[in-house]
Design goal:
This protein is of the alpha/beta class. It has two domains: 84 residues, Rossmann fold (3-Layer(aba) Sandwich), CATH 3.40.50.10860; 122 residues, NAD(P)-binding Rossmann-like Domain (Rossmann fold, 3-Layer(aba) Sandwich). 40% of the residues lie in helices and 16% in strands. Helix 7 links the parallel strand 5 and strand 6. The longest helix is centred in the last third of the chain and has 21 residues.
Length: 279
């Protein structure tokens, strides 16, 4: 296949931006997103910068609460509780990854579900199978991307690599009624066979440039969710240069799923505001 479709997330983000900006401007009060950052990690600085830039474009108050690695876990739980009670705060999230000493999902569970902008609390995760209320930002971004490019998942063979609560598991849950979904991890024995038969491949394993041309078919649409910082360069889980010109479509890294995750976070924030205002 000579003309691989490059699924540019930036284009979709820019398409969604004007309406979202207008909807936020029409609210009776400014939206506020609070991101809790623990310690300094280079990739987190990039993600935080992207969120801050988007907040500025949308007129959203962006508060970055920084805790050093020497901070106590209890102090973070205490701060989350204060934010839960603050009516001027509409969304709370914890920037991941966090240092190993900090229990990421326990801290996430402390967030009031009505302020869980990333949709990671068990309250929202359990609702995914029947009545989704808050879809994790990355997963929502993927759906927005597929809709924009009119890529239908119905009755397709779908392979998801990576079972994380952030992406793989919620994605599998939401896609279960679309087509034949195979969720793979490092213990799956026939991963290569599944990949070669797949119409859609969703990659979230954190292994830079792992997926190569010979592992997939020409009909494949590859959604690369992985990001790894290698010698100052951001790489995806798919070797873009290997599959470009061969597969049906692929997302680039950077510029594919990343921009969609960021704008979806703010789509979620607006939804949370509306949930909080429901009587």
């Amino acid at each position: 296949m000579e003309n691989t479709k490059i699924l540019e997330g930036r284009s979709v983000r820019d398409f969604l931006l004007p309406k979202l900006k207008k909807d936020i401007a029409n609210l009776n009060e400014p939206l506020q997103l609070v991101v809790i950052q623990i310690g300094y990690q280079k990739e987190n600085e990039l993600y935080l910068k992207q969120k801050k830039t988007m907040a500025e474009k949308l007129g959203v108050i962006f508060t970055n609460l920084f805790f050093s690695e020497s901070a106590s876990v209890s102090s973070i739980f205490s701060e989350i509780e204060k934010l839960n009670q603050d009516p001027k705060v509409h969304g709370i999230m914890i920037q991941s990854p966090v240092p190993k000493a900090f229990p990421f999902f326990e801290m996430v569970e402390a967030i009031d579900p009505k302020k869980d902008v990333d949709g990671l609390t068990s309250f929202h995760q359990q609702k995914l199978s029947n009545h989704p209320q808050m879809i994790p930002a990355t997963v929502r971004g993927i759906f927005e991307l597929l809709e924009f490019y009119q890529l239908e998942l119905e009755e397709k063979r779908i392979v998801i690599l990576g079972k994380s609560r952030l992406v793989g598991s919620p994605l599998a849950t939401l896609l279960k009624n679309k087509g034949k979904v195979v969720l793979c991890d490092s213990k799956t024995e026939d991963t290569l066979k599944q990949l070669q038969m797949a119409d859609f491949i969703f990659l979230a394993i954190g292994k830079p440039e792992w997926l190569k041309k010979e592992m997939v078919s020409e009909k494949a649409v590859i959604i690369d969710i992985g990001t790894s910082l290698v010698e100052g360069k951001l790489l995806g889980d798919c070797c873009f240069s290997s599959v470009n010109g061969y597969v049906k479509a692929v997302t680039p890294v950077p510029g594919g799923v990343g921009p969609m995750t960021v704008i979806s976070l703010f789509l979620n924030l607006l939804d949370l505001y509306n949930i909080q205002r429901e009587k």
